[in-house]
Amino acid sequence: MQGFVSYAAEEPIEPPKVVVVQTREEHEDSFDYIEVDYSQLDEIGTYTVTAYCGCEICCGKWASDNPITYTGTNATEGRTIASDGNSLGYGSAVYIEGLGERIVEDKPADKILRKYDGKIIDVYFDSHQDALNFGKQKLKVYRENEYTMTNKIVIMLSNSDKAIEFVQKANEFSEDLDLVDGRIEIDAKSTMGVCSLDLTKPLELRIHSDNEETIKQFNETFSQYMEG
């Protein structure tokens, strides 16, 4: 199943109350204020932060009562955010001012990413009213000091010719690489295995390495296959 592409930041409905994340008192009527020692984290920058749920208003044709994210996880309040996973890293943890830790599991529509130059985060809520109450805010975003480039990215291969080219590049690595489609995980160095997947869908590519230089090369090599 195609994961959500959130449209919540495109034409945000004017909320009845915009909650600015600054103090516990300003938070307590809508959601819990999370205290984090941000001095121990690296600041990424200030992002436009909006909110969405699984309804048709927020997600259009991808609306669902049991939303599945772009990366194939179940959208979960208190964990899931949609953002530019190709820069922040799909599956990576970030820390949002006043909200605490969230995981990049979903993706906004491409035109939204372009509109905000990638500096947009959409926070998932179970309730549409809670998403409205959150409103649209400018918040600082952080990640752990020892963060390195992600060892997994979301790619699109589109057709068999592109898949064969991709496999050739995968075989240049001595490390194991896997392609993941939902619950299916195959060897990314196998032409037959890769071509057996639905190439019209986003696929998660993983490399089994913790070496920073190897992961950097991995990101550079496969960036041309990143969607968006």
Descriptive key words:
single chain; 228 residues; alpha+beta; 6-stranded mixed barrel; 4-stranded antiparallel beta sheet; 8 helices; 11 strands; globular
Quaternary structure annotation: single chain
Q: Output the radius of gyration.
A: 18 Å
Low-confidence stretches: 11-33
Helix content class: 10-25%
Order of helices and strands: EHEHEHEEHEHEEHEEHEH
Total number of strands: 11
Q: Which structural class best describes the helix and strand composition?
A: alpha+beta
DSSP summary: helix tally = 8
Q: Which strand order does the major sheet show? A: 2-6-3-5-4-7
- Strand count, sense and closure of the main sheet? 6 strands, mixed, barrel
Tell the overall outline.
globular
Mean pLDDT: 81
Question: What distance separates the N and C termini?
Answer: 18 Å
Beta-strand proportion: 25-35%
Question: Can you give a write-up of this model?
Answer:
- It contains eight helices and eleven strands.
- The protein is α+β, with helices and mostly antiparallel strands and 228 residues long.
- The strands form two sheets. It has a six-stranded mixed beta barrel with strand order 2-6-3-5-4-7. A four-stranded antiparallel beta sheet has the order 8-11-9-10.
- A hairpin with a 3-residue loop joins strand 4 and strand 5.
- The radius of gyration is 18 Å and the shape is globular.
Give a brief outline of the structure.
This protein has 228 residues and is of the alpha+beta class. The protein contains eight helices and eleven strands. The strands form two sheets. Strands 2-6-3-5-4-7 form a six-stranded mixed beta barrel.
